[in-house]
């Protein structure tokens, strides 16, 4: 077994990646993590999806590729320039709602929404407002995060935040958790 992705990439992926590189954005999820997201998305037919931290839409394209035609996704980001890249290449997908908003504001103004799949790829929903986001997860729903292994672009003190997140998730009795020491470091948790 190897880590080579032998399946086709999402249609828009190459174009989004090219625009992302031009923009100078360096915090995108790697292709192995994205492949995992696509596989996990396929387990939720007719599902309701939330992505916190759209970035330029690289991971968004993979999640959409795994979703069926009856699923819907809300993807939230505060950076209009990056969100415009996602909108350019993914905005015509009727299953997707791209939302320009601060993560904290969006979470606090949508407390009653429920999701089958949450990918938290930004501070809000991962290190901030975690309880509020996990409250949005339906029983049987999946909560996913990446970048849990040390990264060269982590700011000072970030390792402690990541370590504390893992400990907190492990203590929660309403989650079944698996940590994957693979790709950039992934966590997948299912809500009981």
Explained architecture:
With 192 residues, this protein is α/β, with parallel strands linked by helices. It has one domain (12-191): Vaccinia Virus protein VP39 (Rossmann fold, 3-Layer(aba) Sandwich), CATH 3.40.50.150. It has helices at 13-23, 31-41, 58-66, 80-90, 103-109, 130-135, 158-171; strands at 48-52, 72-77, 96-100, 115-120, 137-145, 175-180, 186-191. The protein has a 7-stranded mixed beta sheet, with helices on both faces. Strand 1, helix 3 (58-66) and strand 2 (72-77) form a beta-alpha-beta unit. Helix 1 (13-23) runs antiparallel to helix 4 (80-90) and helix 2 (31-41) packs parallel to helix 3 (58-66). The model has no long low-confidence stretch (mean pLDDT 93). InterPro entries: SAM-dependent_MTases_sf. One of its GO terms (molecular function) is methyltransferase activity. One of its GO terms (biological process) is methylation.
Summarize the structure.
The chain has helices spanning 13-23, 31-41, 58-66, 80-90, 103-109, 130-135, 158-171; strands at 48-52, 72-77, 96-100, 115-120, 137-145, 175-180, 186-191. With 192 residues, it is an alpha/beta fold.
